Queue: 2 jobs
Job 1
Amino acid sequence: MTSDDTVSLDHGAGGKASHALFSEIILPLFHNDQLAQQDDGAVCEVPAGRLAFSTDSYVVDPIFFNGGNIGDLAVNGTVNDIAMCGAQPLFISVGLIIEEGLPKKDLQKILKTMARAADQAGVKIVTGDTKVVPRGKADKIFINTSGIGIIPEGVNVSGTRALPKDKIIISGTIADHGMAILNAREGLAFESDLKTDSAPLHGMVKSLLDAGCEIHVLRDPTRGGLGTTLNEIAAGSRVGITLFESALPVKGQVKGMCELLGFDPLYIANEGKLIAIVPEHDAGRVLEIIQADPFGTDAAIIGEVTDHLPGKVFLETAIGGRRLVDMLTGEQLPRIC
Amino acid sequence: MTSDDTVSLDHGAGGKASHALFSEIILPLFHNDQLAQQDDGAVCEVPAGRLAFSTDSYVVDPIFFNGGNIGDLAVNGTVNDIAMCGAQPLFISVGLIIEEGLPKKDLQKILKTMARAADQAGVKIVTGDTKVVPRGKADKIFINTSGIGIIPEGVNVSGTRALPKDKIIISGTIADHGMAILNAREGLAFESDLKTDSAPLHGMVKSLLDAGCEIHVLRDPTRGGLGTTLNEIAAGSRVGITLFESALPVKGQVKGMCELLGFDPLYIANEGKLIAIVPEHDAGRVLEIIQADPFGTDAAIIGEVTDHLPGKVFLETAIGGRRLVDMLTGEQLPRIC
C-alpha cells in the first residue's frame, strides 16, 4: 500500500488535501444540497415546536464486525437516540477523527455504509468535520454523530415517566451486539454466525405513535445493557422494576457464549433494541405493533413497574428466586460502541 | 496520583462509574433542566424557520495553552460556526473521548472552562456523551461539539454569495491561535505573552444583523487560515479575490515567529476572527460595528472581490508585487484545533 492509499495528516489540515478528501470521497457518498454548500454549518428548515437533539461518539474496536461496521453503528445509534425522544430524525452531523495511516478503502467502506444507513433511516447527513491525528494518537477511526429530529405535538416520553403497574416490553433478543463485537476481537473466534443487531428503530416508534399508543418511556439499552438502562429508569422515575427471567429473549448462542465467558447478558450492549414502558391497558397492542416491525419480531413483555423499593430493579429467576439487578459495576467490555 | 484521581475505562462503560462521573463532575458544571433529565437526547423548544446545524471535533495538542484550553476552544468553535451561518447559537452537545489515565482534575478544569464559555456565549449544553479508550488509543482528550441556532428571517449569508466589488473585512489580527499553540508545544518556548484568540463571535454577528447591514459572506478562518478560507469563498462564489498585504493586521511577535520558523501567517489558524464580505456601500459601517465589538478592535478592510480569474486569490504585496495565494498545500501545523 502506497502513501496515496492511506489517510495522511495533510487530509486533516484544512487545505488542498482536506478539500480533495471531501470532494472526492465524502461528498459523492453523502451528496445533498446542504453539504454541497460547504459552509461552516448547514441550514435546515424545521417547523416550530420541540426538537430532539442528541450526540454520541463511536470508538468501537474492531471497526468492522459481523453485520456492520463503525459507520452504520454511528448513524443508527443517533437515529435511535432521537427516536427514543419520541421524535422522527431528520438531520445528522458526522465528525470523523482519523488516525494517520487508515487505508482510504476502509474509510470509503465506512462512509458508504453510513450513507446507506442514513438513506434507510430517511435522515440527511448535512454537516461534518474531519480531523486527522498522528499514528498512535487515536485508534483507526472514531466517529461522532449528532442528530436533530422533530417531536410530534402531544408526545411526551422520558425516563422519568414510568408508573407503577406499567408493563415493560423489549423489542427483541438481548446482548447480540456486545457478543458479536467480542467474537470479532482478535483472539476470540467462536464458530458463529452471530451478528450485531444494529438497526434503526425510528420506524417502530413512528408506528407506535401513529397508532396513538400511550407510551411513558422509550430507551435503547446500549452500553451497560438492559440491566443498567432499567436502573436508570427506576431511578429517574422513582419506581421499582421487576423483570421475569423466563420472559427475556436471548439467542441460544448468545446465552452459550455468555455462560462460557462469564458475562451476564443483562449488561451486554444492544444496538437495535428498544425498551417501551407502557400502561397495562395498552401493552398488548404495543407488543403487536412492535412484533409487526421488521426489527421487532422477537419482542416480548419482560417485566413490570412496581411501587416498592423505588430505584431498584429485581429479577425473578426461572427457578422462582429473586435477585437484585444493580447497575453495571466496572467494565465488562470496553469499546463496545 | 492514585487511580481514583484519573479517568478509567469503567468511566466509559455506561454503568456505575459512568453515572458517578456524570453526576459528580459533569452535571454540576453544566447544570440545566435538559441535561438533568438524563434521557438519550435533549428536548429543545424552537420557533419555526431555518436552523443552523454544525459540528466540529477538537484534537488540539497540547490541551492547555496560553489563553485557553481544548474546552473553550470547542465551545467557541461551534458557537462561531453557527454564527457564521448568520444564526444565534442556542444549544450545544458535547461528546468526550477520553484516554484512560487522564487526571480528573484536568477533566474538571476543561469542563469548567466549557461551562464558562457556554455561559459567556449564552448557549446551553443540553446533551452529551462520554467514551473512554485504553491508554495509547487516543491522546488525553478529544472533544466534539455540535450546535444548533436560529437564522433570523431574511438573513442569507453563504460562502457562495460574494460578488465583484464587495469589500473583505477581517475582524482582527491573524495567526494568533496557531502561533500560540506552536509556542505551547514541547521544545518550542519563545519568550512570549502570545495568547490564543479563541473567542465567541456571535455577538459581533448579531450587532451587524441588528443594524441591518447587508452581508454576503461570513466565515471564520480557522484551520488552513485566511488564505485557505478565501480560496474556498473564491471557488464557492466563482469570483476573484485581491488582498492587500499592507492592510493585513498581524501582531509584531506573530510576524517575527512566522519569519523565524518559516510559516506564512496567511495559512495559520485563527479561532476568534471572522471574515465579512459586504457590498462596498456598507463596508464602512460594517467595519465600525465590528471595531466597536470587544473582539473586533483591530478589524480592517483587507481586500476586495473581483470578476477576473474566478476562483483565484491574489496578494498585492507591500512592495507592489502580486502573487497567487493558493490553498494550503500539506500540513503546516498538525492538531491546531
Job 2
Amino acid sequence: MEKAYAMVIEEYGKELVRHEFDIPQPVGGEVIIRILASGICGSDVHVWKGQDKRSHLPQILGHEGIGYVQAVNTGRKDIFGRELREGDLVVWDRGVMCKSCYECLIKRKDYNCKSRWTYGFSKSIYDYPNLNGSYSSHMRLVPETDILQLIPREKLKADEDYIPFVSACCAGTTTACAFEQSRVESGDTVLIQGPGPLGVYSVLYARERGASKIIVVGGTKSRLELCREAGADVVIDRNETTAEQRLAQVLDLTDGRGADSVFEVAGTASAVEEGVHYVATGGEYISAGIAVDVGDVRLNWFSDVARKNTTIKGIWVGDIKNTYQAIELYRRHKDILDRTITHRIPLENATEALRMMERREGMKIVLIP
Amino acid sequence: MEKAYAMVIEEYGKELVRHEFDIPQPVGGEVIIRILASGICGSDVHVWKGQDKRSHLPQILGHEGIGYVQAVNTGRKDIFGRELREGDLVVWDRGVMCKSCYECLIKRKDYNCKSRWTYGFSKSIYDYPNLNGSYSSHMRLVPETDILQLIPREKLKADEDYIPFVSACCAGTTTACAFEQSRVESGDTVLIQGPGPLGVYSVLYARERGASKIIVVGGTKSRLELCREAGADVVIDRNETTAEQRLAQVLDLTDGRGADSVFEVAGTASAVEEGVHYVATGGEYISAGIAVDVGDVRLNWFSDVARKNTTIKGIWVGDIKNTYQAIELYRRHKDILDRTITHRIPLENATEALRMMERREGMKIVLIP
Amino acid sequence: MEKAYAMVIEEYGKELVRHEFDIPQPVGGEVIIRILASGICGSDVHVWKGQDKRSHLPQILGHEGIGYVQAVNTGRKDIFGRELREGDLVVWDRGVMCKSCYECLIKRKDYNCKSRWTYGFSKSIYDYPNLNGSYSSHMRLVPETDILQLIPREKLKADEDYIPFVSACCAGTTTACAFEQSRVESGDTVLIQGPGPLGVYSVLYARERGASKIIVVGGTKSRLELCREAGADVVIDRNETTAEQRLAQVLDLTDGRGADSVFEVAGTASAVEEGVHYVATGGEYISAGIAVDVGDVRLNWFSDVARKNTTIKGIWVGDIKNTYQAIELYRRHKDILDRTITHRIPLENATEALRMMERREGMKIVLIP
Amino acid sequence: MEKAYAMVIEEYGKELVRHEFDIPQPVGGEVIIRILASGICGSDVHVWKGQDKRSHLPQILGHEGIGYVQAVNTGRKDIFGRELREGDLVVWDRGVMCKSCYECLIKRKDYNCKSRWTYGFSKSIYDYPNLNGSYSSHMRLVPETDILQLIPREKLKADEDYIPFVSACCAGTTTACAFEQSRVESGDTVLIQGPGPLGVYSVLYARERGASKIIVVGGTKSRLELCREAGADVVIDRNETTAEQRLAQVLDLTDGRGADSVFEVAGTASAVEEGVHYVATGGEYISAGIAVDVGDVRLNWFSDVARKNTTIKGIWVGDIKNTYQAIELYRRHKDILDRTITHRIPLENATEALRMMERREGMKIVLIP
C-alpha cells in the first residue's frame, strides 16, 4: 500500500531523517495533497538551526508547497467556490487563522491573527494534522485551510512545467502584501533593495502599479540582470559603489527628491539604515520578509522620519488574497519568474539543499518528492 | 502717524530688540494685519538660541498669529471665497507654498513643498515682506498666503475672548495633520504620549474619530488632568510608574493587544523608543511636532517593526486645511482648549516669555501687542 | 422542564402563532441564548407580508436580538478572545458568513458573502438551528456565529436597563458600515435624510467623524428634535418646506457648495432623487438601509453624477465589526440612543407590534419575552 | 514679421475663420507656445455647435495642445522645477485653477475648483490671454498655468514623431483621473465600455493596476482589436450580441460575480443602464468623459445600488497630476497609443476635421499648424 514520507528534523542542525506515514483519508473538509514541489525559504534554515521559537521537534519543514488533490470529500471548495476534485493542482494558505478574533474581524487583517499557525513551522509530527509541512510526499490540510485551485485536472498538460508556481507561495505572497499596504501610484519612482525572489516580484508589482521609474540596489550581478529584464530601469551594484555614490545616484535619478516608495527585501539592518535615506519627502519605506532578529536599527528621528514626513512599514506575511495576487502575477510573467527557480533537488536530499540555502547558493531551491 | 513695531532677534540668545516700521499699504493681494495675539512655540526657543538652520538675522519670530485685517484691496478673498474687509478677524497659513511643484501638484501635500517658507522662521526683516513674524503689532501677508476668516467684522463682540483661537495655529494644525494621515477608526484604542497642547488636541481629535479608549501618558499632573477632562479614559503619570508598569497597564487595558494608534507628541527620542512598544500588531505610531534634532532612536527591527506589521509615520507640519480643521475643532471644544493658554504676556516682554518657555513654565504662552 | 417558545409566521400577513420548543444543549461551538430583547425592524414587516424572497415558512422573525448565554461549552470565545460563560450578556452577528470565499477573503467584505444567511430571515423552524430568530425566548447560535460579549455576568447590575443595546444590532450596525465606507473627514458638512433610528445613529457618527456642520431633513418633529439633541446643527422639516426651499437652505448653509457627504436613511426613491442635489461637487451620496424594491431612481447623469464628480454608494448591511462600533457608540451616547426605543411590548403580542410598525407608530419597538 | 494665426468660431456651426494675431512677448510667468499639434475632442464639436454653456464667441477651440516654448522669461519652471527654455517641448494643464479655495485646498481636488477656466472653452479672443486655444499656431499661457516639460530642447530628435503625445492631454488625463479615483487592485477583473481613446487608455491603466482580467465592450471592430492588442483579454462586440448575451458572458467570465470595476467611457445613458449590471457585489462603476447632457439614467435602486453595495462615481476632468501620469503611460506604451491617432489634418482645414469628428470618422484627429 502506498505510503507517504517526509524529511523530518529530529535534532536542530543535523541531517533530516526520512519518516514514513500512512496516507490518511480526509475527514470532513480535510484535503489530502500529493506534493508536486516545495520551495526552500530562508526561514527554513533558521528553523533547522533552532533559531525560530515557533518550532517543535520532531518536525517537517516546508510552507511553500503546491500539489495535487489526492483525496477530498464532496463539497469541499476553493476560495472561488470551485469544488475540489482528485487531481486538481492547488496551492493553499501556509497560515491557518481563527477568522473570529479582533485581528481577523475588526481589523480585517487575518495575517495578524494571534492564533495563526503555519504549515511547516508551528507543529511537530505528533500534532494534528501530522503531515503538516511540505518537505514531504503528501500533506493533510485541515478544513480551515484556504485553498486556491491553480489548474483544474482536465486542463493539466503532461508537458507543462508547473513547479515554478511555487515561487508565488511565500516570496510572491509577502511581496503582494507589501504592495497592497503601500501607496505606490501611477508615475511614482520605486526603489527596491535586494534583488532576490522578493526583489524580482517587487519589480513586477512596481510595474503593475504604474511606476515610472524602478531602481534596484543589490550585490549579485546575475540577480540585478534578472531585475533589469523584469523591468527595472536602473540597477545599482553595491559592490561597485559606495553608499554615498548610491545615494547621489538615486537623487540624481529623481530630480533630487528620492524615491516615492522604497521596498527593503534585503533582510539586514544595515540595508534599512541606508535605505531610509533614499526616501523622498512624504515617501514611504516598506520592509518585508524579515523573519528573524536582525538587530537594532538606528534612525535619526528628526532627519529620517519627522522632517521628511516619512512612512515606515514592516510587513510580516500575507494571506490567501496575496497568494491569489501572486499567482495571477506569476501567470502574467512566467518567463521572468521561472528563472528565479535555480535549483530542483530531490526531496531526500533536503539536508544538502538547506546547506546550499545557508551558503546562499541559488536564488530559489525547490525540493521534488 | 501710527507705526508698527516688532520684537527682533538681533543676536542669538540675547534680548529681543524693539524695532519700529512704517505700516505698509497692501499692493495687489497683500493683506496688512493688526496682530491680536501671537503664540510662543517651542520652536521659537530653538530659533532664538540659534539652533534652527532656517533662521536669518535680524529676524522677527512668530508663526502662530491671529489678527484683524488692517488694510486690504478689493477682491482679496479667504479660502471659502469670502471677501476680506477691514476689521475681519483672520488666521493664515504660517507656510507659503509654490503650489506648482511635484509635492504640491503630484503628491498633493503642499506642506512638503520644497519652496515652502514660513512666517517667523525663514526671513530677516530685510526680506520682503519684512513684517513677516507675529511677534509684532502688524504683519504684511504676501498675496500667496492662504487666509481663513474666523469672525466677520460685523459679528465681532466686544466682550468675547478671541485670543485662544491662537492655539489652533500650530499645535492644532500639526495635530490635525497627524490625525488626517492616521488610520484611526471608530472603536479604536488611541494612546497619546505627551499631554501638552498637541496632546490635548490629540485627545479631542481621537474622540472625534470615534476612539473607544483614549490613554494619555505624561509627566505633569495638571496637564494629565486637563487631558482627562478633554476625554481621556485613562491617564498614566510617568513619574509614578516605571516603563514596565506602563506597558503592562496598556496591555491590560487592551486585552493584551496594545493600542491601535499611538501618537507621540512628547518630543523626545526616549518617548519614541518606549512608545513603539505600546503599538498593537498591525497598529501605527505617529510622531508629530519634532522640529529639531532629538538624536537617534534605536528600534529592534524584527520585534518593533517587522513582526508587528507596524506603521511609523513622522509628521512635519500641516497646511491651511489642517488649520481649518483645528479652528473648527476649537469652536466645538473652546471650554477645554482655552485652558491650554496659561499665560498672556505683553509683546514687549517677549524675551522673558521665551525664557519661560525654555524653562517649560506654562503650557501655551501668548504675546499680546 | 423549561421550554423555549417563539412567535412563528405560519401564513404571510396573518397572526403569528406561539410554538414551543425543547431547549437544546449546545454541541461544539453552539451557544444557547436566553433572549432579553428583540428589536422589530422595518424589514420584518416585509417578511411577514411575504415580500422578501429569503423567507421560508413556517419561520421565526427577528435579527435584532440580545440575550444572556443560557448554555455554552468550555472554550467558546467571543471576538475579543473572552471565554463565554453562562449568564454573560451578548450580542451576535445577525449574518453567518462562509469566511472562505472571494468576498470574504479577497475583497475582505464578509457582509457581501454570497453564502451569507441571516437569523430571522433565511430559515424555517425545520432548518437547523431551528430556534433561529429572536422573536423567541431562546435561540441556538451556530458555531460559526460571531459573538460579542456586552457585559460579563459578574458585572451585570440588577437595576440597569440593558434592553436599549438592541438599537445597535441593526440600525447601529448598518449605519456604522455606511460611515466606514464613507469619506467623512474633520471639518465636513454632513447631511442626513431621514431622522429614524439610522438617522439618529448617523448624527452621532457624523459628530464622531469630526463633522463641522450636521443637517437633518425629515418629516417628524419629535424625531428631528431628537436629532438636534444628538448634535444636528440644523434640522429641516419636510412638511414645512418645498424641495426648492430645502435645497436653497442647504446651499445657503454651505457657502453655495452643498454637503460633502449626504446619508440617505429615509428609504424612498424620491428621497434619493432629491438628495443627490444636496451633494457638493466632489462629494458623496451614501444610501443605507433599503431592503426592498423601492422602484426606479432617475438621475440626470451629466448634472447629478458626471459634472459634479459625485460618488454614490449603496450600503446593504454590516458585520460584527460594525456591530462592535455601534455598541461602543451606544455606550458613549446612551442618553440619546435610549430614546430611540419608544415601545416595549410582550413577545406574545408580536403581531400587534408588527402592525404598529407597519403603521409607522413608534421609532423602535422592542419585544420582551 | 512672424504672425500667429488661429481658426476662430465666429458663428456656431459655421466655417471657422482664420484670424491673425501679433505674437506677444511673455510678461512675468507667461509662456508663449508654438503649437506642434492640437487634438480634436468630442467636446469641441459641442462647443462648435453652440451646445456648451461655457462658450464665448468669437473663440478659438482646442484644449488638447502640445508645443514648443517660443518665448519665456528667466526663472519660469515646470512642475518638476526644471527651468523652461526656448525650444523645449511641453504640455500644460488645460485648466487654470485658483489654488486657494475650498476645493483646491481643503478637498485637494483642484479639478473641481469653482473658478477653473479652460483653454479652448471658456474665453473669447477678446479675453486675456487671447491666444487661448490650441486650434492655432501659437498660444499664450498665463502664469498660473501648470506646465510639464516633455523633452528638453537638447534631446529633441529631428526624425522623432512627437505628435502622438497629444493623446495624453485629454483622453489620457481624464482616464488617469478615473483610475486614480477607482479602487482597482491587483487581481481584479476590469470591464471597459467604449473602445475609443479613453477605452484604449483604460485598458493600459487596468494592466498597470494589476488587473487579472480585462474585458472591453464596444461596437467598432478595429477599435476592439486595438484594445485586444493593448492587453484586453476578452472583447465583446455590441453589434454581434444582445444585452442579455453580453451580461451572460461577463458573468461566465467571472465565476458569476461580475466585474470588480466597470469603466464607462462610451458616453451614453444606455451604456450606463447596461453597464451597472456588469458590476460585482461590492464593486464599482466609474463613468468618465461625459461632457454634455446625455439624458436621464434609470437605476433600480434596490437591485442596482443597495443590494449590491455598488459604488458609482462620475469623473469630470483631471489635472496636471493626471496629465503627468498619462504622459508617462504614453512613454511606456507608445506603440499602442500612437495608433489611436488616426488622422493628421492641416489646421486650416479645422472645420472639415470637426465635421469628420461629428460623423465619428477616425479615433483621434489631430490638427497640425
